[in-house]
Write a structure and sequence with these properties.
The protein is an alpha/beta fold and about 325 residues long. Among the domains are: about 5-80 and about 155-220 and about 295-300, P-loop containing nucleotide triphosphate hydrolases (Rossmann fold, 3-Layer(aba) Sandwich); about 230-290, 2-Layer Sandwich (Alpha-Beta Plaits), CATH 3.30.70. The protein has ten helices and 14 strands. The chain has helices at about 45-50, 75-80, 95-105, 110-120, 135-150, 165-180, 195-200, 220-225, 270-280, 295-300; strands at about 5-15, 20-30, 35, 60-65, 65-70, 80-85, 155-160, 185-190, 205-210, 210-215, 225-235, 250-255, 255-260, 285-290. The strands form three sheets. The protein has a six-stranded mixed sheet, sandwiched between helices. A four-stranded antiparallel sheet has the order 2-1-4-5. It has a four-stranded antiparallel sheet with strand order 12-13-11-14. A hairpin with a 2-residue loop joins strand 4 (about 60-65) and strand 5. Helix 3 (about 95-105) runs parallel beside helix 5 (about 135-150). The chain starts with a strand and ends in a 15-residue tail after the last helix. Pfam families: ABC_tran. It is an enzyme of class 3 (hydrolase). Its EC number is 3.6.3.-. This is Cobalt import ATP-binding protein CbiO.
Length: about 325
């Protein structure tokens, strides 16, 4: 697959010596949705701002569509749309004028047909003449996306696009993102909502202390690092795990057994466990399995990674 964004050995050090990004390497594939996860101060917003040319890197290189983000800034920036965390819109301006003005900033000729298509895709067409101040928070976020799409970018960065948005509207935004991908737009989003990444991303990137810990296909990541647990509901709850079951990775929860096993191994041990239950006089009533969530995998990845302090002024995410 073609790489639309290539980040090579990117470093950002602020005055005073604080290093927000450390030798970041990242390739983003054309047409994919990449979710970038990381704790507060990890460097997510700094990375996006640097790729988009808002923040100047200390060293390293960013190529967007083959254009260097420094030496060929205008061509690179024209390929990128950015939806920031903060809602910073002119409150007394209309939706249409706001989007039309953003298109003009990139030197694009007027194209009312295209702008209508963008607004309709974001369910904003009936609000085109409404002033920004009259819109809900969710609608204002949609206007931010419309502004970012106004100049027809090939890459769209969404920095915490559903922050502060209720669950129902968040799912609507997921549908918007899916539609943008269907239209050929490459999407990179940062998010605090793990279920958001789990629901819509093709690949997952994890960043901590300014370093990329991994970038991997979402399904492959969950298969490789995920564990399954088997809850064994007994006919009679027990107080302690019998000695005869001591070789198994068992926990006792509310008088019932929970067995954790690795999905990658050839043998899960379940057959032997069920046989040994009977040998130890336990009668099974029901079985339930569950897969580790992406959130659990994320927590396990960043737990041992040192956290940055809040000195990362450019990264409030």
């Amino acid at each position: 697959m073609t790489q639309i964004v290539q980040v090579t050995d990117l470093t950002k050090t602020y005055d005073g010596g604080f290093q927000a990004l450390s030798s970041v390497h990242l390739d983003i594939q054309q047409g994919e949705i990449l979710a970038l996860l990381g704790p507060n101060g990890a460097g997510k917003t700094t990375l996006i701002s640097t790729i988009c040319g808002i923040t100047r890197a200390t060293s390293g290189q960013v190529l967007i569509g083959g254009h260097d983000s420094v030496s060929d800034y205008r061509a690179a920036r024209n390929l990128v749309g950015l939806v920031p965390q903060e809602i910073n819109l002119e409150p007394f301006e209309t939706v249409m004028n706001t989007v039309r003005f953003s298109r003009g900033l990139f030197g694009k000729k007027p194209d009312p047909v295209y702008l209508e298509r963008v607004l309709r895709s974001l369910s904003l067409w009936d609000k085109k003449d409404a002033k920004i101040m009259m819109l809900s928070g969710g609608m204002k976020r949609r206007v931010l996306i419309a502004k970012a799409l106004s100049h027809e970018p090939r890459v769209l960065f969404l920095d915490e696009p559903t922050a502060g948005v209720d669950v129902e509207l968040r799912k609507d935004m997921w549908d918007v993102v899916a539609q943008l991908k269907a239209n050929g737009v490459t999407i990179i989003l940062t998010t605090h909502y793990i279920e958001e990444a789990e629901a819509i991303a093709d690949r997952i990137g994890v960043i901590a202390k300014g370093e990329i810990l991994l970038v991997e296909d979402k399904d492959a990541l969950m298969t490789r690092m995920g564990q399954k647990s088997l809850k064994i509901e007994l006919s009679e709850p027990i107080d302690t795990i019998p000695d005869g079951l001591g070789t198994y990775d068992l926990d006792l929860v509310d008088g019932h057994l929970v067995y954790t096993y690795d999905t990658r191994t050839e043998r899960t041990g379940i057959t032997g466990l069920l046989a040994d239950l009977q040998k130890n006089g336990l009668i099974m009533k029901d079985l339930q399995t569950r897969q580790s969530s992406l959130e659990e995998i994320f927590v396990s990845l960043v737990t041992d990674a040192p956290q940055t302090d809040t000195h990362d002024k450019a990264d409030a995410s």
